[in-house]
Write a structure and sequence with these properties.
The complex is a heterodimer of chains A (189) and B (293).
Chain A lengths: L1 E5 L5 H10 L3 E5 L10 E4 L4 H10 L3 H8 L3 E5 L1 H6 L16 E4 L10 E9 L2 E9 L4 E5 L4 E6 L2 E7 L2 E4 L10 H8 L4
Parallel strand pairs in A: 1-2, 1-3, 3-4, 4-11
Antiparallel strand pairs in A: 5-8, 6-7, 9-10, 10-11
Chain B lengths: L1 E2 L2 H10 L4 E5 L2 H10 L3 E4 L4 H7 L8 H10 L4 E6 L3 H9 L4 E5 L20 E5 L2 H10 L3 E4 L9 H19 L5 H8 L3 H10 L6 E2 L7 H9 L5 E3 L1 H4 L4 H13 L4 H8 L26
Parallel strand pairs in B: 2-3, 2-9, 3-4, 4-5, 5-6, 6-7, 7-8
Chain lengths: 189, 293
């Protein structure tokens, strides 16, 4: 099992630590052809405007959309923004793989960033985890086929559509392996 | 709910990794920076090269100018306060800047003490020339460390010196015996607990960025290869002939820092870089890196 980290910009090194903890091989992905050898991909937190520009410059868009047809993608924060529906800001090109409306920086600037315990329903279990929200986005609407795995203050914070998962918070900052394991470890999805 | 914990502060620094933070002096420049792919902008009234030329006291920026920039970009906005000037820092926190740079580029306000950064919800970045200085700043609550380099010089030599120094001292710590750490902490002038933690992990407990003299894509690549996780570009962009093009090139150079053919492509056809200064042309008392304690 080999999981890629889209390493154009952001906290991909923290995600790499999580993947290694799960005992899987990792690959920093900076060229589209690297996707060929992978079983899954993480789009990390970072700046979605910067990621969009680098995705364009390195012609990643079509290869990632192809990859998504047969393998799972996990996106956190900016990564979720990239997986969600179109953004109003024309500087951001999303992949539209998870049918959610996402409002960027919805909690405000960094002084309003926080962590809080939230309940997560993954598989048959419900568990409480620490969720760290950094200049976090908010999911304001979910379409058909979107399963809500966790919520914060009534808004979805973790969602799944088919094989893809998006989070508004950062499990990689709290050494939480649950979502990566769920995204890439399941059988038959 | 916990706002402004050390973990939450470091969290934003983590999100800035693999990126370029650009100095901007007005909303137009901020927009150019964002469109080029900057991960954050540093709002200041004059870029370091201008501060150096103009002389006088360099202070925190006018809040109106900071707000003007916050209004126009969606990426994080940073601003600088003078070393030890906690009142400027309080004002910047009230303005909800995303990061405060307690910076040697501005004229220091306290000749002995830095800001006690744990008192704030907003994260701080501080410059350093060596490991002792880095660990003192982290002890005071800095969530991000950068090299000082020599701001406004367009000359990478000081940033290289500072990054190499920090990396060498980090490595040295990992081979010392436990009984040697107290004496080393005394030599470094660093808090013992920080020294012990670093000796174990071999790296700083917060992200480590480069600043001070970066002017070209090659400079950015050099600093990333030496261990920087992101670069700050101050005068290097808006003192150059074609800022938009150069800004975009440096953004790509940070991502592809270890790919020479791609760097060759990125570096091709850029108009002139800022002129720059040899460090020997700057009298020691005018070197910004000497500020900070």
């Amino acid at each position: 099992m080999k999981i890629g980290l889209l390493a154009l910009q952001g906290d991909y090194a923290r995600h790499e630590d999580i993947i290694r903890q799960l005992g899987w091989e990792t690959q920093l992905v900076r060229y589209p052809k690297q996707l060929d050898a992978l079983d899954g991909l993480v789009i990390p937190g970072g700046e979605s405007t910067t990621m969009t520009k680098l995705i364009k410059a390195s012609r990643f868009r079509a290869p990632i959309l192809d990859f998504a047809q047969h393998a799972s993608i996990l996106g956190t924060c900016a990564g979720l923004i990239m997986l969600g529906n179109k953004q109003i800001d024309s500087q951001i090109d999303t992949f539209e793989l998870i049918n959610v409306e996402v409002e960027r920086n919805a909690y405000g600037r960094q002084v309003f960033s926080f962590d809080e315990q939230i309940q997560v329903n993954v598989g048959d279990e419900t568990q409480s985890i620490t969720a760290t929200f950094i200049r976090a986005p908010r999911i304001t609407a979910t379409g058909a086929n979107v399963e809500i795995l966790a919520s914060h203050n009534g808004f979805p914070a973790a969602v799944r559509q088919g094989r893809h998962i998006g989070l508004t918070f950062h499990p990689e900052l709290d050494d939480i392996t649950l979502f990566h394991e769920f995204a890439f470890g399941r059988q038959g999805i | 709910m916990d706002k402004g914990s050390f973990k939450v502060k470091i969290g934003l620094a983590e999100m800035l990794k693999g990126g370029v933070i650009m100095d901007v002096t007005n909303p137009e420049q901020a927009k150019i920076a964002e469109e080029a792919g900057a991960v954050a902008v540093m709002a200041l009234e004059r870029i370091p090269a201008e501060i150096r030329k103009d002389g006088g006291i360099a202070r925190m920026s006018d809040p109106a100018m900071v707000k003007g920039i916050q209004d126009i970009v969606s990426i994080p906005v940073m601003a600088k306060c003078r070393i030890g000037h906690f009142a400027e820092a309080q004002i910047l926190e009230a303005l909800e800047v995303d990061f405060i740079d307690e910076s040697e580029v501005l004229t220091p306000a306290d000749e002995a003490n830095h800001v006690w950064k744990h008192d704030f919800k907003v994260p701080f970045v501080c410059g350093c020339r060596n490991l002792g200085e880095a660990l003192r700043r982290i002890g005071e609550g800095a969530a991000l460390i950068r090299t000082k380099g020599e701001a406004g010089s367009g000359n990478i030599v000081e940033a290289v010196r500072h990054m190499r120094q920090v990396q060498r001292e980090l490595k040295e710590l990992t081979i010392l015996g436990t009984e040697e750490l107290m004496a080393r902490a005394k030599e470094l002038g660093a808090p013992f607990e920080q020294v012990r933690q670093v000796a174990k992990s071999g790296k700083l407990p917060v992200p480590n960025f480069a600043a001070g003299g970066i002017a070209t894509p090659a400079d950015a690549s050099l600093m990333m290869q030496l261990g920087a996780e992101t670069v700050f570009v101050g005068s290097g962009i808006f003192m150059s002939e074609d800022p938009a093009h150069r800004a975009k090139a440096i953004v790509e150079a940070v991502t592809y820092f270890d790919d020479p053919p791609r760097l060759a492509e990125i570096s091709t056809g850029l108009k002139s870089a800022m002129k720059g200064l040899d460090i020997s042309e700057i009298p020691p008392e005018q070197r910004l890196q000497e500020r900070g304690w």
